[in-house]
Write a structure and sequence with these properties.
There is one protein chain. By secondary structure, the chain is mainly alpha-helical. The chain has a domain of about 100 residues: Iron/manganese superoxide dismutase, C-terminal domain (minor pseudopilin epsh fold), CATH 3.55.40.20. About 55% of the residues lie in helices and about 10% in strands. A three-stranded antiparallel beta sheet has the order 2-1-3. It is globular and about 55 Å long. The chain starts with a helix and ends with a helix. Fe (ii) ion binds next to helix 2. The site of fe (ii) ion has 7 residues, from helix 2.
Length: about 220
Amino acid sequence: MFTIAKNALRPTLTRAFGAGKAYKHTLPALPYAYNALEPYIAEEIMTLHHTKHHQAYVNGLNAAEEAYAATDSTAKHIQLQSALKFNGGGHINHSLFWKNLAPAKEAGGKLVAGGLLEKTLIRDFGSVEAFKIKMNTATGAIQGSGWGWLGYDPVSKKLEIVTTANQDPLLTHVPIIGIDIWEHAFYLQYKNVKPDYLKAIWNVINFEEAEKRLVGAIAN
Ligand SMILES: [Fe+2]
């Protein structure tokens, strides 16, 4: 009798444990201190951006995945798609973004001279400066909130600049560098002057990480 009862409970326990394990996304730690990107990105922005905004996407993603798993209704699943996309994209994008950045006294702003990234940027954009101008122009032109990306297109095998709206993640390309152009990323420091934020951020772009992503993208 005990055996029957134990077996009867097993599917429920397995499902509950599996759901808890699979849907508990957590906020990744920042790889540097909140004030480490000063003066280019203020400590207050980094603190709020990481602990409030990114945490909200993590919470929203967990809630959406749990709600999805809790029902077999196709209509409910469809209803949850936008929450999954928004919060899942927010979690993916910000997790990439923190690694995209590094303090200026460390790897920030230092493109590896003669490296694969520099060579490929020159091949695909003419020069590193021309690439930065093109990326800033495209990112600054996003209406509302979104992201500017340097992505590697696995079909054309070229680096390209792409923008995504809201928290849509970059799915057509392998993300190499992403720039968050939501107001929460810059407004406390740069107010409405997006070009100043976009100019400053290159001082803290982690080109070593970008180089690694490009090497990985080409190898795959
Ligand atoms: Fe953000």
